[in-house]
Amino acid sequence: MKKLKLILIWILSTVCAAIIAYIVWGYIDSRGGLYNLLIHTQDLLLILLNLTTPLWATIALTAICCLYTYLKIRQYQNSYKPPAIQEELLEEFGVYWNNQYKLRCLKCKWPLKCSSDKKDPSLFFCSNCNLKHSIRDKNGKHLTESQAIEQLKKLPTNHSS
Ligand SMILES: [Zn+2]
To answer: What is the pTM of this model?
Structure first.
């Protein structure tokens, strides 16, 4: 699951950061502790410059990992906003529609996402309950999202679910 993967990446990058912090701290400690270093700021700069290249690479990699995780989590939060609680939904073509013609899951009312399957543009999936939905008209004919919206607009407005 996507959620689990994100959590794993987060844990890994946190562990990496902790290990690096431990190594750097050990290095500083071997030079007489942070207090001594703060007195001799020049020494601190020297130590930072003298760190071995692999360590710098690890630090850079961890920073990139953290940034990546942060961006992923932000993207995740932005794209999986639950629908408004009092959203009025219309059941049509095998899915729910809100008043802005956005697709909602028939089971949990979560926003539906476009399936990665390019061959079937009528296929959508719910990222909350993992259900797949395909938009079909009354005759079972597959519809794309825009075709369905066009047909929805033609429906009488007093139509209620
Ligand atoms: Zn759902």
So the answer is: 0.48
- In tens digits, the chain (161 residues) has pLDDT values of 667 777 777 877 777 678 777 777 777 777 677 777 677 777 777 777 777 777 878 888 889 988 999 888 887 776 666 666 678 899 999 999 999 999 999 999 999 998 877 788 899 999 889 899 999 999 999 999 999 999 999 887 654 44
Cβ(44)–Cβ(36) under 8 Å?
no
> 127 CA distance to ligand 1 centroid (A)?
7
| Distance from residue 58's CA to the centre of ligand 1 (Å) | 40
8 C-alpha to ligand 1 centroid (Å): 24
Domain extent listing, the chain: 2-79, 90-154
The protein residues having their C-beta less than 5 angstroms from ligand 1 (an ion) are 105, 107-108, 110, 126, 128-129
